[in-house]
Amino acid sequence: MRPLVLLWGCLVLPGYGSLVGPKEISGFEGGTVSLQCTYGEELKKYRKYWCRESGFLISRCSGTVYSGEYGQEGRVSVHDSPRQLRFEVILRNLTLKDMGQYWCGVKRVGFDKTFSVSLLVFPGISRQATQLDSTSTEDTSFVPSRSSSKPRVSIPMTRMLAPVLVLLALLLATGLAALGSYLLQWRKKAQLAMETPRKEKVHLSHLNTSLSFCWL
Predict the structure, then answer these.
(1) Distance between first and last Cα of the chain
(2) What is the pLDDT of residues 45-80, one digit of tens each?
(3) 3-state DSSP call for residue 21?
(4) In whole angstroms, what is the distance from residue 108 CA to residue 7 CA?
(5) Spatial distance between the Cα atoms of 148 and 103, rounded to a whole number of angstroms
(6) In angstroms, rounded to a whole number, what is the distance separating the alpha carbons of residues 79 and 7?
(7) What is the enclosing helix (H) or strand (E) of 60?
């Protein structure tokens, strides 16, 4: 009789094989929410599960997802960590229809160890996803500007300097050509200026000789 009383006390009395977790969790529509349920050493070897409360007079479970090798069904996954004496429930792509009461439980002989969790879902995108998107866009917009700053500065400078250098070279060549032409003309004029007196002297000498012959 005494072993039966002890067994009944182990199965019914609170505190034995305790299971604790948050009473309420919340998330945004389209986002992800997770919770951790911790249990006692006595519940280590039992299967853990997550289900939605259904029924009006008698509380029942629907859409139960058990922990196991994969521990995932649809948008819900249950991962048990016996060494840490806890299991994690993850709900993805939340919808407004997901709002309601759920059970976080441990399957065992006799009575399951459970506690009720209230899930609230708010309209809109999750804040965490919005923050991640904003930081990722800032990072992507900042990194290319740093990497592309050097070529954007060096390439236009070379393109701007090239026409200037070509123009300077053309001006220099034109100036040298004009200077050479001017020097050549000046040299010709100097030579003409030196040859003109000589021709006049020769012409005068010829006139003098012709006049002397006429007087004779």
Answers:
(1) 186
(2) 999 999 998 876 566 788 889 987 666 788 999 999
(3) coil
(4) 13
(5) 54
(6) 29
(7) strand 60-66
- Residue range 124-163, pLDDT digits in tens: 764 554 444 544 444 444 444 444 444 444 456 666 677 8
Residues 6+ apart with CB under 8 A from 45: 82
106 strand-pairing partners: 48, 113
Lowest mean pLDDT among 114-118, 144-148, 175-179: 144-148
The pair of structure tokens assigned to 181 is 């032409």
Residue of 158, 34, 37, 48 whose CA lies nearest to 92 = 34
How far is residue 68's CA from residue 119's CA, in Å, rounded to a whole number? 23
Residue 117 CA: distances (Å) to CA of 14, 21, 37, 157, 198: 18, 8, 10, 66, 128
CA distance 7 to 18: 16
- Sheet containing strand 76-81, edge to edge, reads 19-20, 33-39, 86-91, 76-81, 72-73
- pLDDT of the residue at 34: 94
Q: Which two tokens stand for residue 45?
A: 């070897």
Choose among 86, 98, 85: nearest CA to 30.
98
Q: In whole angstroms, what separates CA 216 from the centre of its chain?
A: 119
Report residue 199's pLDDT band, with 50, 70 and 90 as the boundaries.
low
**Average pLDDT over the chain, rounded to whole?**
76
